[in-house]
Structure formats: C-alpha cells, structure tokens
Amino acid sequence: MTQLEYARRGVITEKMKIAAQSEGVAPEFIRDGIAAGTIVICHNIKHLNGTPLPVGTGLRTKINANIGSSSDDTDMQKELEKARVAVKYGADAIMDLSTGGPVDEIRRAVVAETNACIGSVPLYQAALDAVRVKKKAIVDMTVDDIFAGIIKHAEDGVDFITVHCGVTRSTVERMKNEGRIMDVVSRGGAFTIEWMAYNNQDNPLFEHFDKLLEITKEYDMTLSLGDGFRPGCLADATDRAQIHELILLGELTQRAQAAGVQVMIEGPGHVPLQQIQANILLQKRLCHGAPFYVLGPLVTDIAPGYDHITCAIGGAIAAAAGADFLCYVTPSEHLRLPDVQDVRDGVIASRIAAHAGDIAKGVKGAMNKDIQMAKCRKKLDWEGQYSLALDPERARTLRESSPVSDHGACTMCGEFCAYKVMDDAMARQAAS
Amino acid sequence: MTQLEYARRGVITEKMKIAAQSEGVAPEFIRDGIAAGTIVICHNIKHLNGTPLPVGTGLRTKINANIGSSSDDTDMQKELEKARVAVKYGADAIMDLSTGGPVDEIRRAVVAETNACIGSVPLYQAALDAVRVKKKAIVDMTVDDIFAGIIKHAEDGVDFITVHCGVTRSTVERMKNEGRIMDVVSRGGAFTIEWMAYNNQDNPLFEHFDKLLEITKEYDMTLSLGDGFRPGCLADATDRAQIHELILLGELTQRAQAAGVQVMIEGPGHVPLQQIQANILLQKRLCHGAPFYVLGPLVTDIAPGYDHITCAIGGAIAAAAGADFLCYVTPSEHLRLPDVQDVRDGVIASRIAAHAGDIAKGVKGAMNKDIQMAKCRKKLDWEGQYSLALDPERARTLRESSPVSDHGACTMCGEFCAYKVMDDAMARQAAS
C-alpha cells in the first residue's frame, strides 16, 4: 500500500512519524494532509538509504538542487561532488537530470552518495536510449521505451519522477494560437512535442496515464506532474497554454489520487513578480491543494550570471504565497552546466528564499534562528553568529579576511559601531 | 529658487527637462510630481559635474551604493575604485559614508570621480571632528558643529543628506517601553541618542529643523529624512518606535515642503517579507506620497555573506509596492567593510530588484529589454544576450568558461537543447 492508501484508512505509518518529527508537527497532521492530497511523502520503497521527504501545506518549504551531466560534460565525479555539496548546504532533494556519459551509473551513484530525496525525468532516459543505444532519433522512442525508462528509474530508487503528461495536442495547439516568444523551454516538453509531431499521436504519458499510475504505485513513487509549457521568458508567463496545461494536471491529480498515487504539481519558470501570487492561487485551486513544486520563478530575463538571485526573489514570493517546494537555479543558468561553486550558491539562495517564505506564511518556529541571530549580533558574539548562519564558512571567511582592531566589532563601522554606541547611551541613561 | 518652488509656480526647468528625457515621460509629469511632493530631483546647485537624479512616483526605481572608509580601513584609492565600479554596473547614486582617514578629501574625490548623484550623512562629520579634531567624544559635538558639518557637505556638492530628525526623546522612550532585541542599528540614530542622553537635550536636528531647512534650501539639497529606528532584525520590524518616527517624518515633510525644500523619506532595514507592502503603504500615507528610499529590506537575519540576496528579495517586493529608491546591501554586510567585488555584486543585485519591481509596478518600457533578451535566447544569439545582460562581462565569462561543441547551444543541455528540439518540432509540424 502507498502512504496515501494508509492515510486514507487512518493509519499512521513509520514514515509519517519520521516526517512529523522532522517538521515538529503531530503525526495526525501529516496523515490527514496526505489523505487530503495536500501533503506527499516522497520516498520510493526501493530507496533504502533515502530519507522520506514530506512536502506540502503547513510544512517547511523544501528545496531541490538539479545536477547531472550533459553531452558536453560527462564527468561523473563532478556530479557526485555536486550532490555532496548540495546536501551539505541544505538541499532536501536532488534531481539527477543527466543526459551525457554513463547516465545509468551516474544515477545509481547519486542515489548511493547521500541520503537525500531523489528525483528524475525518465523521459530523458528513453530519449537517450533511442539516440545512443538504438542509434536512432528522439522521435524513434517507442511507448514501451518510455515506460521501460520509468521502470528503470523506479528500480533504482528514484523518489519522485517528473512526467510531462499535460503536453497534449490541445495544449500545443493553444500555444501556437497564442504566439509565444520562447515556445517551449522544458526539455521533456520539447521531446514530447517533437515525438507527437513525428509520430502523429498524442502524448503517450497522457494516453496511457493508467499504466503510469500502476508503475508508480508499485514503488510508491510520487508523481511530479511536469509543466511542459512553463514560461521561458516573462512575456510568455500565465498564458493560455500554461493555464490549460495546469487544468489538465489538476484533472490528472484527481485520477492519480483516486488510484492511491501521491502527486505534486510542477510550475513556473520565468514569471513577472506581480503574477506570482496568482500563479500559486491558480495551482492550489485547479489542483485541489496538491503540493506545488516551483522552478524559480525568475522575475527578470536580463540577469544571466545572477539567476540564483532572480530565482530567490521569485521563490521567496512563491513560498510566501503557498509554494511548497522550490527548485533552485544557479548563477550559470542559461549559460553553461553549473559547476560545484554554482551548486553551493544556488542552494544557499534557494534556502534564503524558502526561509523568508516560511516566516511569511507562518511555518512554526521559522523565526527562531533569526531571533537568536539578532541576539548574537547585539552582543557582537561572532561565533554565535557563524553557527546560526546558513553558510557558516562564508560568514567566517568574509569577516576574518578584514582584520579588526581591538573594538570587537567589524571593519564596516570600526570604532563607530552603532551597537557599541547604543550600549554606551543606554548605560548612560540608566545611570542618570 | 529650488526645483520645488519652480514647480509650484508652473515653471519647467532645465533639470526637469533632463529628468523627463531620461525617464521617457513628459516634462509636465516631472514638474507636477515635484510640485505635489511625490518626485524630487536630487541635485545640489554646487555639484557642477553631477547628473540631476529624479526619484519618485511613476519613475524608474533608482539604486544607491554606499561606499566609504572606516576607522579600520582608510584607503582612499579603494573607495574611489568602488565609486567607479558602482557607477559602471549601474548605481544611480553613491553615498559616501566615510568615517576613517581623510574623510574630507575622500568626499571631494568621490564627488569629482563620477557624475553620479551623491549622498552623505553629515552627522558623521561632526562626530568625527569632535573625536579627531577636538580630541573629545561624540557627545561633545556642539549644535554648531552639527550644522557646520552640514554646510561643509553642502559646499562640497552633496545632493542629498540623511538627517535623523525623527530620533527624539519621545521615540526613544517608545523604543525602550517596547523592548527591542537590537535597539538602534543606525549609526546616525545611535550617535544622536548618545548625544541626547549625555547632554540631556532633545535632538538638535529636530529642535532646529527650520535652520536645517534654511541651509538645504540655499543649495537645493534634498533632505533625506533618516530612520534612526530602522529595525536591525526581523523581530524589531514595524514596531511603535519605527512607526512613531515615521509619523514625525511625515510632519517634518510637510514643514520642509512648505519651506520649498525637497524631501524624501528613508525606511526599512530588516523586515519580514509579509510586512513589506504594509511598510510601503504606511510611508506613502503618513508622508503624503513623498519618495521612499529603502535600505534592503532584508527578509531574514540568518544569511550573513549573502545579504545582497536577502536585500534583493525585499527590495524587489518594496519596489513593486511603490518604493522609489533602493539602497543596496553587499555580501559583506554585517561582517566587514565591503571590497570592490562586493560593490559590483551589491549593485547588480539591487538592479535586479529595482528592475523586477519596475516591471511589477508598470514603469513604462520596463519589459522592453526582457522581451529582446527572450528573442535572442530563442535564436541562440549569444552576443545579443550578452549585450542585453545587466552584467555582460559575467555572462560571457561563464559561458566561455565551459566550451561548447558545435551545436551552438550551451553546455547545460548540450545537443538536447530544448530550443533546438522545438525548432525541429515546429518545422516538422509546419511541413506536415
């Protein structure tokens, strides 16, 4: 039985207890959320070294780091180092999106490397197998190839899979009529559209959705219903292709939940700041409260090299508005495959966004560390500040790079540190 | 006559025309905004090499970079390099907050170095002169010293000055009754409070506000009414000390405007995300629409080393809600005096925030570059992308650090680039 089926019968499982403890909530809260479809626990029963990851309403906002090789950069050791760094700096989940080199070995090594929750896009597997193993083109994938890829990932212990089931003839037609600047920027979406055009058939993951449910149910994998029409630029955001796909994903959510399969929904991409709240509201309403897993959103298109920041802005607003799970973006987005430093920068930026969002939406205890940090700042307790920092090493490195004189403050204000001046003033007032 | 006095008489000045052209609005719009107090043009009549900077409702959100020496780091050349880098990467204004070394020489050199708008906090001058020239303590400043510092800055061509006029006995009392964690973190606020406690007098800049108006009017300097009670941590935000000070600043705004002096208001610091909109609304209402110059806001306390990101999140939300002018924060905030790289990172982060906010609040033409960027992305036109990027050098460096094979995309997706796959799919559909 899946966690959803247990929850519906009123059973509190071991995974629900672990999730409840990690969140500081009652196990009943987790169980009831799962039963209602507003919480999922991402954990494949085959992922023996994995930590069950609860995602959804009322819980801490989670963050995911995408890693993975490409045809231009196939170094497995670099990807494993990215996985370690992502987890070290606080990623809750890692998606292995490898499309170059020994992708099966990379995926298995990534699963083995950490205890993090693991996601993937199995369609890449089928596309690669068609191109590399069968020496054909992406469009030559068969429906069996696509499902074989999914089973392979399930067997390897992947906890959640992105499937672009809402990319259908009707949504493609809507997109073409609308006239987008960037069309489709999702790789899975693009592969599907090319396949449909060549084979003159609708999307097999939509057509054979029940088969997909059977497979995922067997492993209790969480279905992450992907947004093939996620906007690739601000001008394309919140258009009819995106929203029509979301309606379809909401309908598929109901079918999956009825079959006992846990579901979350993927969303945004590039979205102007003033449209983010509406995007969250639409997803929550159209998908009946299913957890929302959001890429970015990036609030401008003109900051290549700094898209961890454009993503942190959008992600914080999205989390505050109810997004449950943020996918990071690194400084190298749109420019190159990220390196290890990019992964660290991307993870920290997303943690900032998730944390700011958690404070805003009132997640229990979210402000505790901020309050402790403020107290350490006031006392000029530097070790205390480092220990509370999201990245203690970087905080220490920056301060220690700029030697202070004997005032105990930092070199920003030197002897005129406002904290010290205020201490003097308050002592003077108290004495007078 | 000041720009405000001209505007009230219906006159469109040369500076208003320059401002209108740089904003792409009608000169009448600038004139009427100045007359209404919702727009200021920051420009001291003595700042012969300076560019008049329009700030306010309906205009592009501006950004400021703080630079300046401290008692631990007095290198003038480094500060001049920061000024150049700040302007190169898009700062509209530079505040010289030097409190160490040859501060008069630094200020004059900073004014001469670029054409940017210049701000300062003249109280630091008086405090330093008391400590260093008179060999006394901050508390030994006389009222004349304080005004002498203001005149010195005015004579040097400073375009706007921060004055903490709202730090009074009544606001200090309110803060003490409330019980803050961080008390006062503004240096000008702390100096003032220590002075008041020692001298048993109220704030001279509040008591002698008319004298302040006389001086600023003579140079048409813009008064930037400082927030001595700006919250230093999330827990202290939007409390009665902060809001009471804002009420006082609103009253002083009316007095200044009645005297023909241009005014803007300074605000935030550390503010939880969900309180930012309310802070902007309160300022706009309590200060009758005067332009709002906002530090940060920083949306969490626990990210030292990354406060340019916590600031960009808050700044974008503030700008979207109506803030007119953002003060950057660098990665070194809370840890050390920023270096030159910090200035670049801080300026770019604030530009991202301001730009995202401008798109959200509908500033005319704000989306143009985003649309052009999207078109260049779709075409894989890399030179076009670099030329549109906020930081072209960094975009180029990242991409070129990761050599691509002959597919023309980038190493992120390699041969499986979604743009290319989609082009194939659309061509296939068009042909069929």
Q: In words, what does this structure look like?
A:
Chain A is α/β, with parallel strands linked by helices. Chain A folds into three domains: 60-360, Radical SAM ThiC family, central domain (TIM Barrel); 367-401, no CATH class; 405-432, no CATH class. Chain A is built from 19 helices and ten strands. Chain A has helices spanning 3-8, 14-23, 27-36, 76-88, 103-113, 122-133, 143-155, 169-178, 187-199, 204-207, 209-219, 240-258, 276-286, 307-321, 340-361, 368-378, 382-388, 392-400, 418-431, and strands at residues 39-42, 53-56, 62-67, 93-96, 117-120, 160-163, 222-225, 263-270, 292-298, 325-327. In chain A, the strands form two sheets. In chain A, strands 3-4-5-6-7-8-9-10 form an eight-stranded parallel barrel, surrounded by seven helices. In chain A, strand 9, helix 14 and strand 10 form a beta-alpha-beta unit. In chain A, helix 14 (307-321) packs parallel to helix 15 and helix 16 packs antiparallel against helix 17 (382-388). The longest helix of chain A is centred in the C-terminal third of the chain and has 22 residues, at 340-361. The radius of gyration of chain A is 23 Å and the shape is globular. The N and C termini of chain A lie far apart (72 Å). The model of chain A has no long low-confidence stretch (mean pLDDT 95). Chains A and B meet through helix 9, helix 14, helix 15, helix 16 and helix 18 of A and helix 9, helix 14, helix 15, helix 16 and helix 18 of B.
